[in-house]
Structures are given as structure tokens and as C-alpha cells.
Amino acid sequence: METLIYLDTARALGLEEGDAHVIRNAGGRASDALRSIVISQQLLGTREIVIVHHTDCGMLTFTDEVIRGKIRSELKQDADHIAFLPFGDLEQSVLDDIRVLKESPLVLDVPITGYIYEVESGKIVKVGSS
């Protein structure tokens, strides 16, 4: 969700403005992006998917229980029905998201590659592909 990280990641992947349909969400989670991915494939012709998560991600810092507790405390609402999808292992989260898309009957059989963008160094590291 951070704009500067997006710009650095696009540069690291060699993308120019207009080269890709960029779908962003908290943690870069594939399940949150599924609706947009299907639209991009079916209506815009997207034939490759790249998943990028980054180091120093806020999604590594909490659990569903923590965020649900904050919502109960501050908003007096129950959010137990929402999976906020935090993760404890950055590389595994990318691999999990590749799997989610490969297993979805709504996603075309296209190349899917997963990367971790290292905020500290500006490097992008491939961690998996289908």
C-alpha cells in the first residue's frame, strides 16, 4: 500500500507506466485481489501475474486476534468473520499466494511469479513461480 515501495518495485521489475495492471492491497494478498485479477484477465487480456510482497511489511506485525481486539475496543464492533490475512513468514506468504491463484478455477492458466522486494537494499528476489 506504500506508494514509494510500488515505484521502486516497478523499477526493479523493469516496468514503465502502462506496462501492467497493478493491483494493490494490504499485504499483497492474492485472495483479496482475486476479483480484480479475474476482471483484468477476462476484460483486459492480462496473461501473466506477478506477486510482490516486501520486507518491513506491516502484515508481519500483528495477528487476526490483535486487529479484531482493536476493532472491538475502538469501534465496539465484531470482526470475527473477517480474515485479515497477516503472515509470519514473508517467503511463505508469496508461495501461498501463488498457490491460491493456481488453484482458483476463475484464474486462467498463465505464468505466475512471486517476488520479495527488499526495502532496505532495493533488490527484488524471486521466490517462486508456477
Automatic annotation (TrEMBL):
The keyword Metal-binding applies. Gene3D superfamilies: Carbonic anhydrase (3.40.1050.10). Keywords: Metal-binding, Zinc. InterPro entries: Carbonic_anhydrase, Carbonic_anhydrase_sf. Its cofactor is Zn(2+). GO terms for molecular function: carbonate dehydratase activity; zinc ion binding. CDD domains: beta_CA_cladeD. Zn(2+) binds at residues 54, 57. Binds 1 zinc ion per subunit. Belongs to the beta-class carbonic anhydrase family. This is Carbonic anhydrase. It comes from Penicillium cataractarum.
